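In this supplementary section we document a worked example of the pipeline. Step one takes a protein sequence of length 258 as its only input; no multiple sequence alignment statistics are reported here. Step two produces a three-dimensional model, which step three serialises into C-alpha cells for compact storage. The input and output of this example are shown verbatim.
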Amino acid sequence: MATREICMKLGSCIINNLSKNNSFLTELVTLSQQLKLRFFLIPGGGNIVQGLRNIYKCDPNKDSKNDEYHWRAIELMDQNAEKLYQILNKIKYQSKQNIPIQLKSDYTFNNLDKFGIFILKCEPLLREKDDLKHSWGVTSDSISIYLGNLLRIENIFLVKDIDYIESQGRKIRKISASNLSALMKETGYSTSIESHLGKGTKFPLDPFAPMLIKEYHTNVLIINSTDLRRFKMLLNLVSQQKEKKEKIDFDKFGTLIY
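The serialised model returned by step three reads:
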C-alpha cells in the first residue's frame, strides 16, 4: 500500500491545549503507525498570536508595521512547533524524525520515514519565497494551504473545533472557494481583522484562504478535532485510497472547500 500524505494545520483547539493527555494528539500518533500515514503538521498561532493581534489593534503605527507583525506571528507559530515536539515526546512517540523540520526551498523529504508525524517550521521557507500577503487576513490557514500546495500534498486538512461552516443557521457541507469568498464579502468578514467573525456567520478560516484554494485548484477539508470517531473513519478511508484520484465523500466529515 502506498503511503498517503496529509498536510494538517492544527488550530487553536489543539495548540491552546497542548498536553500529553491530549486525546487528539494521542490518536494521531496511533493512527500514523496503524494506517501507515504521513502527517505533516503545521501548528497555528493559538493564544500567543491572538495576543499579538490585540497588540496590533492598539498600535498607533500599525499601518506601517504589517511586515513586522507578519513575521512575528510566523515566529510564534514556529515556537508552537517546538512545544508540539515536546508534547509528542511525552506521548512516547519514538522517532528521531519528529524533530521540527526547518523547511527551505531545497529541502527534500526523500530521507524521511515512510510513515509517521513530521512537524513543520515555516519561517525559513516563507522568508525565501515570501509570496503571501503580509496582513492579518493571511493566517496559519492560508500558510498551511500554501505549503501543502508547494509540497504537492493532495490532502489538506484544517483541524478546528467545529463540524461545519454555518451561515444563518445552515450547515455548509460543501462550497466552492469562489462562493465562500463571496459569502465572506457579504458579511464584511473579508475586511475585518477580528478573528473568524462575519455578520450571521462564523468563519473558521481566514479570508485569503479561499483565494489560494481557487488558485491552486485544490480541496481543503475543515474537520472537528473533538469527534475522534469521525476523524478515525476519515483517515481509514484516506489510507485505503488505491489511487490519488479515487473519490472520497469528504463532506461527510466536515466542510469541504473546493
